[in-house]
Amino acid sequence: MSPDCAVLEHGRPPPLHKLQRAAWYQALYARLTPKTRQRDLRQLREQALIKQDDHNRLWPGFVDPADNSIDESTG
């Protein structure tokens, strides 16, 4: 996965920690507090714009993570 991590880049959902290390994400929250980041992520989940699966990966809201099995050994 490239450093410019995006949800479903190359058809695969990124783990939350990789998304948070992406340059665009860091720039977006550079002047904001960790509490703001947490609130924004929570609101995206509540609005069903993103979904987080049991492996801490983020999916776009229109995808059901339960219906998408990804081989852990390849990603």
Strand and helix layout:
Layout: H1 16-21, H2 23-28, H3 34-46, E1 50-52, E2 58-60
Antiparallel strand pairs: 1-2
Task: Please give a quick description of this structure.
The protein is mainly alpha-helical and 75 residues long.
Q: Walk across the major sheet and give the strand order.
A: 1-2
Poorly predicted tracts of residues = none
Query: Which class best fits the helix and strand makeup?
Result: mainly alpha
Helix and strand succession?
A: HHHEE
Our Rg estimate from Cα atoms comes to: 13 Å
- Number of DSSP E strands: 2
The coarse silhouette is globular
Distance between the termini: 9 Å
Instruction: Note the total helix count.
Output: 3
Helix content: 25-40%
The biggest sheet amounts to: 2 strands, antiparallel
Q: Please state roughly what percent of the residues sit in beta strands, choosing from under 5%, 5-15%, 15-25%, 25-35%, 35-45% or over 45%.
A: 5-15%
Query: For the residues shown, what is the average pLDDT?
Result: 82
Total number of distinct structural domains: 1
Structure description:
This protein has 75 residues and is mostly helical. It has one domain. Helices cover 33% and strands 8% of the residues. The protein contains 3 helices and 2 strands, in the order H-H-H-E-E. A two-stranded antiparallel sheet has the order 1-2. A hairpin with a 5-residue loop joins strand 1 (50-52) and strand 2 (58-60). 7% of the residues are buried.
